[in-house]
């Protein structure tokens, strides 16, 4: 007999049973579901809706079930559809009909919303933790590689030389924004929907704020209809996750390129690469490739949820059950990707020599020659043209700017003097970019310091939220 079987005269069709059930995936929420029920029943007792003895029996029963779940002893069944009814059924098996009082003043609609809020709150903190871990590795490498210079690229063509630290810190900036987004979304995630009932609230004299406080929520939904139909926080979570994956995919792509024989800028550690079953010489960057590939599915989950929610009338509709698998898969994909990316960056070897070679064997200092001419009073547009012609000349002669004699330089622009050789040296070129946020050493160091301060602030935020979570003791 179903928990809702009263008004039914026939058993459920077997195909419906399977199609309708969510237990195969929402069992992921078992801890949250029991935690929420414990808070709910405590509130029912406190408000005098259930007698103390019932509350004690129900709480003890729920705790027993939780212990059994943790020991891996519990079998969930499709017959009881979802995690909420499976737990209720297990409770009644455990303590008898008094277990049927747990659902007083509550609906699965506010219950599932509660579970998902608790789940996303926990995962938001976990993602912040993993991002901070990644950030630490990026900052460590940036500090170590402060004197490593490589060509910076636009259009994947050598553009201007930059410090490798500067390049890495660009990623640190992206991940810093990602952390900021998660921290900001936490406010909205940490809002308690319980007490909304199925749609309109409940006739019982419940205390929503008591439950909210017990579960560590900062506030409650102020509209019961919104409470059961809001999935914005999931869209937001998937959207932030998609952006994190997108950032990881760009970094992955660079690692793949840089570790290729064509670039040889870095070497990935053997422990994080794989071989080919046929070609004995191969060492493949599978992990960055997989991260790059998995970005597609995470972005797909975002679009999928948006499409599910589009034009859904208020309030709860079963369509919303479709919110879970994508979210769970996103969490799994993202935590794995972040953890591995930190390890890969920590263990990679940087080939400074090769990077330097590529800076020297190119025209990455061409802008600097143009700027030099500007400083001699030549309008930039004219200077651009002169250097363009000089580059063309060098290409024909198969040489680089620094290989030209002073006479050759002067035949293009008589203003050029002996000091041009120092001026076009890669280090001078990099050091000349002292504008705020530029690649000169003092600027890169400044950014590094700022990022460290931010990292410490985010760490403090995380510690305070984790302490809060730990104090939720039900
Ligand atoms: N399994 C459902 C879900 O994930 C739980 C809520 C069901 N509510 C209902 N009225 N059928 O959305």
UniProtKB/TrEMBL annotation:
Pathway: Amino-acid biosynthesis; L-arginine biosynthesis; L-arginine from L-ornithine and carbamoyl phosphate: step 3/3
One GO process term, biological-process aspect: L-arginine biosynthetic process via ornithine
Entry's EC annotation: 4.3.2.1
Start and end residues of each Argininosuccinate lyase C-terminal domain: 363-431
Name under which the protein is recorded: Argininosuccinate lyase
Similarity comment: Belongs to the lyase 1 family. Argininosuccinate lyase subfamily.
GO cellular component: cytosol
Organism: Thermoflavimicrobium dichotomicum
Domain Fumarate lyase N-terminal: 6-300
Main location: cytoplasm
NCBIfam families according to UniProt: argH (TIGR00838)
Subcellular location: Cytoplasm
The entry's keywords: Amino-acid biosynthesis, Arginine biosynthesis, Cytoplasm, Lyase
Keyword Coiled coil: no
Pfam family, one: Lyase_1
Gene3D superfamilies named in the record: Fumarase/aspartase (C-terminal domain), Fumarase/aspartase (Central domain), Fumarase/aspartase (N-terminal domain)
């Amino acid at each position: 007999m179903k928990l809702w079987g009263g008004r039914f005269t026939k058993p459920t069709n077997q195909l419906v049973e399977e199609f309708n059930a969510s237990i195969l995936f929402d069992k992921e929420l078992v801890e949250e579901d029991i935690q929420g029920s414990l808070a709910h029943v405590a509130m029912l007792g406190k408000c005098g809706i259930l007698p103390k003895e019932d509350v004690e029996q129900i709480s003890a029963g729920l705790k027993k079930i939780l212990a059994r779940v943790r020991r891996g002893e519990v079998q969930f069944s499709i017959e009881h559809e979802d995690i909420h009814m499976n737990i209720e059924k297990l409770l009644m098996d455990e303590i008898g009909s008094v277990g049927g009082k747990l659902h007083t003043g509550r609906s699965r609609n506010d219950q599932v919303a509660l579970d998902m809020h608790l789940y996303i709150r926990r995962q938001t903190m976990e993602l912040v933790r993993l991002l901070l871990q990644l950030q630490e590795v990026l900052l460590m490498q940036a500090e170590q590689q402060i004197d490593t210079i490589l060509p910076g690229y636009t259009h994947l063509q050598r553009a201007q030389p930059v410090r490798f630290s500067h390049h890495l810190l660009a990623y640190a900036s992206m991940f810093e924004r990602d952390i900021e987004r998660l921290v900001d979304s936490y406010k909205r995630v940490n809002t308690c929907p319980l007490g909304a009932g199925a749609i309109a609230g409940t006739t019982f004299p419940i205390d929503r704020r008591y439950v909210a406080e017990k579960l560590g929520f900062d506030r409650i939904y102020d509209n019961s209809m919104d409470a059961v139909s809001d999935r914005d926080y999931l869209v937001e979570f998937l959207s932030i996750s998609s952006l994190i994956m997108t950032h990881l995919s760009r970094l992955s792509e660079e690692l793949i390129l840089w570790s290729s024989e064509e670039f040889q800028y870095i070497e990935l550690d053997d422990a994080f690469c794989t071989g080919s079953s046929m070609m004995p010489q191969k060492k493949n960057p599978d992990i960055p490739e997989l991260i790059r590939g998995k970005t597609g599915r995470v972005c797909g989950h975002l679009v999928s949820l948006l499409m599910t929610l589009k034009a859904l009338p208020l309030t709860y509709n079963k369509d919303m059950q479709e919110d879970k698998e994508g979210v769970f898969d996103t969490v799994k994909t993202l935590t794995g990707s972040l953890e591995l990316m930190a390890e890969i960056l920590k263990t990679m070897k940087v080939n400074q020599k090769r990077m330097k070679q590529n800076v020297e064997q190119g025209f990455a200092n061409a802008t600097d020659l143009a700027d030099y001419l500007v400083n001699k009073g030549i309008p930039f547009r004219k200077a651009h043209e002169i250097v363009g012609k000089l580059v063309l000349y060098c290409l024909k002669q198969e040489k680089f700017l620094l290989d030209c004699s002073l006479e050759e330089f002067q035949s293009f622009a008589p203003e050029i003097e002996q000091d041009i050789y120092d001026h076009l040296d890669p280090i001078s070129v990099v050091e000349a970019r002292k504008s705020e946020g530029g690649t000169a050493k003092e600027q890169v160091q400044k950014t590094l310091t700022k990022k460290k301060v931010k990292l410490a602030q985010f760490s403090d935020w995380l510690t305070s939220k984790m302490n809060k979570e730990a104090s939720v003791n039900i």
